[in-house]
Amino acid sequence: MGLIVQSSAIHAAGCYTTTAVRKGERIAEYTGRRITKDQADELYQDYPVTYLFGLGDGAIVIDGFCTAMFINHSCDGNAETIEEDGHVYIMALRDIPAGSEITYDYCLYDGSDDPCTCYCKAPNCRGSMYSKEEIKRRKAEERKARAKKRGKRKAAKTRTKAGK
User: Fold this and answer.
1) So what's the pLDDT on residue 53?
2) Closest Cα to residue 89, out of 101, 102, 108, 76?
3) Cβ–Cβ under 8 Å, residues 50 and 44
């Protein structure tokens, strides 16, 4: 299978197939050194772009250094990742014609305050590279913080009125 990296309408550079890919076919392996999440956080704290792939529960990550690191996110990807025996493979979800950009849903779950904005333009784009579950969790956290802030303001107003 031939893969090339070239300019992408989604994000800077993307990974494209030079041959047709059949549904279920292995496209690539995400390779690189394995490091802990804490090491990655320390190494890349001042870097806006990283090529990290969380394994299992996310305690260990692959610090990507391969063609697969250029596979962009799409909310309607034509591929998916499969973790098998400590390896991460990118597999075709459907038949992919030669010359197509390979994409998969990153389903991010860790990124501090970064909105991880999505630019895939898919009809079902959720506007973020975070997983649906992570987006729900973040929205619930925001609602909770707003409610707590409103409660503090309400308490302050009550104290002010009582003090008059």
Assistant:
1) 93
2) 102
3) yes
Phi first, then psi, for residue 19 (nearest 5°) are -130, 160
Q: Which amino acid is residue 73, in one-letter code? A: H
pTM of the model: 0.83
CA–CA gap between residue 120 and residue 104 (Å, rounded): 10
- The count of residues in the chain is 164
Q: Determine whether domain 3-130 maps to CATH 2.170.270.10.
A: yes
Tell me the C-alpha distance between 18 and 67, whole Å.
13
**What are the residue boundaries of the structural domains of the chain, listed by start?**
3-130, 133-164
Count Cβ atoms below 10 Å from residue 3 Cβ, excluding itself.
19
Which two tokens mark 127? 């506007």
The predicted pLDDT at position 156 comes to: 62
Longest CA–CA span in the chain (Å) reads: 78
Alpha-carbon distances, residue 20 vs 17, 72, 79 (angstroms) = 7, 18, 13
- 92 close to 100: Cβ distance less than 8 angstroms: no
**Structure-token pair, residue 158:** 């009550």
**Could you say which residues of the chain have pLDDT below 70?**
111, 153-164
